[in-house]
Each structure stands twice: as C-alpha cells, then as structure tokens.
Amino acid sequence: MPDPIRTLIVDDEPLAIERLQILCARIANVSLVGTAAEGNSALRLIKALKPDLVLLDIQMAGMNGIALAQVLAEAETRPALIFVTAYDHFAVAAFDVEAVDYLLKPVEAARLERAIARVGSHAASSADSATCAQAWTKEFWVPHRSEVVRIPVQDIDLIVAERDYMRIHVGPRSFLLHETITELERRLDPAEFVRLHRSTLARRDRIVGFKHNGAGAWQAQLHDGRWLRVGRTYLANARAMAGSA
Fold it and tell me: What is the pLDDT of residues 158-173, one digit of tens each?
C-alpha cells in the first residue's frame, strides 16, 4: 500500500472544514494531520507538521490563500496545494503558484478524490521538470461555467486573442482564458506552437498547408479545414515551416 497523503485543511468557515474532513475520511489514502482557520496559523502548522498536501481556501482574513501559497513557493520543500474556494476568478493566480487543482465549493466527493489522485503524479512531474533546462507549460486550468477545466496543451488546436482574453480551441469546443497572447507564447514550447498573427497561435502539427493569395498575403490551413490569416510580421514563421526562404 502507498503511504497515506498527510493532509492539512485551511479554511475560515467551520462548516467548510467539517465537510472536507468528512470527504477526506472516505478517501483511503488520505490522513488528516490538522486544520487551520487562517494563513498565518496554517504556515506555522505546515512548518511543524510538514504535510504532503494542503486543501486551501482563498478568501480568508489576514493572510489569504494566494499569499500563503506565494510564501510556500519560496520554501526549499513545500506541500502540494489544492485550492478549495467559492470563487472562480482566482484560477489564473492559483495556477501561477503551481496548484495541483482548483475546486469550487460545494466540493463533490468524486471531484475531490480525482484531485487528490493527481497529487502523486504532480510530484513526479515536478521532479522531472526540475531536471529540464526549460519547463514549458503542459496544461491550463480554465474557468468554465460552474467549474474549472483542465486542458492539456497537447489537445489545443488554436489560440485566438479576443480583447483581454484568449480563446483556446480544443476540437469543437473552446474556452476563455484571461491571459495575454505574448505571455502564452512565452510559456508554450516553440517546437509545438507557432505564432502566425498578432492574435493567433497555432499548434504546428495541426497545420496541413499554406497558400499565397497574392500581394504578399498568406494563409495557413488547419487539419479541420479552417484557414488562418498569416500576419506580415510572422510570415517568416510560415516560410520556415514550409521550408522556403
């Protein structure tokens, strides 16, 4: 049997703590080591108990969950973090501090169990990433309706800027992420994604061809038949893919 995941619950609502305690008690490989009602006391408990996992609320008096996560990010060793909150608009900030998952209250038992199951695999992938010269983003967590959806980078076909948001196209579905296209381009492996326009990033293996429309205008065709305009500034990227000067 694997070692139990030693877990600390941090939330300023007693009923929320009680619900998480009940849900965790039903998960075989979880061992609760304590609870805290705000960030400062949680930090002291984390230093003393060294839990493997912290189930962390965000909106709390004093040091909130994001601030606590930022403090922990500076530590030599840190627990895995799963945010448990009533608000979906902190998702980007949560994953900037490398949270394993982001759950919205009221938490469903199956959803919590899936999140905790990811803790072990997340630790392994973090260890692998530490040996790499450049750790490219492998997934995005995007607010969608009443939940936060995990999108593996390998499933993304196309990213298109829409004002202050990016629309991430995954097959027939799309999701909005509050991010700039410049920041996304920085985080994505250039061997996998190519900038074709000031508002467009495409996955290289989804591009099946290019065509020239005259007067220096080019278009790229995706595997699903869509055509994308290639901006003049990014024409060299298209020519490099097509193997022409």
Answer: 999 998 789 999 999 9
How far apart CA 63 and CA 40 sit, in angstroms, is 6
- Residue 108, strand partner residues: none
Q: 62-76, pLDDT tens digit by residue?
A: 899 999 999 998 887
Long-range (24+ apart) CB contacts under 8 A made by 15-21 are: 16/57, 16/84, 16/105, 19/106, 19/107, 20/55, 20/84, 20/107, 20/112
Residue (of 98, 42, 104, 58) closest to 33 by Cα position: 42
For the chain, domains (ranges, CATH) are 5-130 (3.40.50.2300), 139-242 (2.40.50.1020)
Does this model's pTM top 0.90? My answer is no
CB atoms within 10 A of CB 241: 16
